[in-house]
Write a sequence for this structure.
């Protein structure tokens, strides 16, 4: 059989099969030594030992992966990638002792990014975001979830949504869009939180859902359920309406205070509960019995120099599906590298490199509804493949601060290459 591409001779091929990998099953790599991947029409037609695949297929082109690891493209299931400006000044304020929430309550934080982002056109928003996506791709993320949430009025949120749709259409990446109109109560609604929730429910969600056809994948809606942001009851109102309108739902929960948002998300059948740092034990137990993914975002505590991280072992003991993501945003963690997320997860979540890699691929794909297409190297899935410049997969995590991704293949095409 003639194929388009054979990636061969990998020191270690990781297929990362059988997702989602729940609880104690996390960390199955499906490792094949001297492995190969056969690709036709952008899809995987076979994986296995190089000698077997060479005997079976006649490739039109080949990529030599000797002395390298071959693995699925990273899936980053939580980012806030569309924004304008930066918050380097707030980083310095935090180093001097101010907390994230103090800065936010004083009118900085999310609102300071909102002021700059509101002023931008769709063109400008796409231009600001594209280089970040390119860098993420070069670091191995071939699929990325992107939230709105720096518009916080209907027109601006729609501009962010459209910028996401435009970047999705450009490719080569896959993008999953999430509406996060309830990211903060904007200053013009100060002390009128319920009126802002009404706006999200009655105007923004319907307006965004009308534009949904512009975007191919499932769209999600999310809420920042936190002290100083939205209560559990407000979050429930928003997510219930979102569900009726056909959105999948997600929730930012337990980043600073465990309010019960995770349990509420589980009740609503949320695709994921994200952050999950200060999650109460009963919420962990509820999530562990559900298909709601616990998405941990280690760059956030790291970015805030906070000592508490997701208690990953408790989640795994409860049988949860655990994924990891960058949370890339200008406030708490401007991190564009899923490799660095793996490094943090090994140290602070106490995951093994194998567990962290599965959390960053196959389980992450499940968290954004793309488990049938991406996240593992299995027959029939998209050929989203990384060639890693290391002879052993544990180098990802063990080493950090260097981009180990040599070649990025998206739907069977080389889309990024390290010089
Ligand atoms: O996930 N928690 C809310 N949202 C982001 C931070 C956004 C910002 O500070 O701009 C987060 O950490
Ligand atoms: Fe976030």
């Amino acid at each position: 059989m003639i194929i388009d591409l054979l990636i061969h001779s990998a020191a270690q091929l990781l297929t990362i099969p059988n997702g989602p990998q729940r609880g104690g099953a996390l960390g199955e790599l499906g490792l094949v030594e001297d492995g190969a991947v056969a690709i036709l029409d952008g899809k995987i037609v076979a994986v296995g030992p190089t000698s077997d695949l060479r005997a079976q297929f006649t490739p039109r082109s080949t990529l030599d992966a000797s002395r390298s690891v071959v693995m699925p493209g990273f899936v980053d299931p939580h980012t806030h990638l569309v924004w304008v400006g930066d918050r380097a000044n707030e980083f310095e304020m935090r180093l001097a002792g101010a907390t994230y929430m103090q800065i936010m309550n004083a009118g900085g934080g999310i609102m300071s990014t909102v002021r700059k982002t509101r002023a931008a056109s769709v063109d400008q928003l796409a231009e600001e975001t594209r280089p970040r996506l390119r860098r993420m791709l070069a670091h191995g993320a071939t699929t990325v979830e992107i939230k709105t949430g720096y518009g916080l009025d209907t027109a601006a949120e729609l501009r962010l949504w459209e910028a996401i749709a435009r970047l999705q259409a450009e490719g080569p990446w896959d993008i999953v869009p999430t509406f996060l109109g309830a990211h903060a109560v904007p200053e013009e609604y100060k002390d009128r939180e319920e009126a802002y929730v009404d706006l999200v429910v009655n105007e923004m969600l319907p307006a965004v859902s009308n534009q949904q056809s512009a975007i191919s994948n499932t769209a999600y809606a999310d809420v920042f359920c936190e002290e100083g942001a939205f209560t559990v009851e407000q979050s429930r109102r928003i997510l219930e309406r979102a569900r009726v309108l056909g959105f999948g739902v997600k929730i930012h929960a337990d980043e600073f205070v465990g309010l019960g948002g995770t349990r509420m998300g589980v009740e609503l059948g949320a695709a994921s509960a994200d952050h999950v740092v200060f999650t109460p034990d009963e919420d962990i137990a509820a999530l562990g019995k559900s298909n709601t993914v616990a998405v941990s975002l280690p760059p956030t505590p790291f970015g805030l120099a906070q000592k508490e991280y997701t208690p990953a072992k408790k989640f795994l003991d409860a049988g949860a599906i655990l994924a990891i993501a960058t949370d890339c945003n200008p406030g708490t963690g401007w991190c564009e590298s899923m490799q660095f997320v793996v490094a943090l997860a090994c140290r602070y979540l106490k995951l093994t490199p194998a567990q962290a890699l599965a959390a960053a691929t196959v389980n992450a794909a499940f968290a954004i509804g793309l488990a049938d297409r991406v996240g593992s190297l299995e027959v029939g899935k998209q050929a989203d493949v990384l060639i890693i410049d290391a002879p052993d997969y544990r180098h990802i995590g063990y080493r950090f601060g260097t981009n180990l991704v040599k070649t990025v293949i998206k739907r069977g095409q080389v889309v990024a290459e390290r010089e």
The chain has two domains: 2-72+376-417, 75-367.
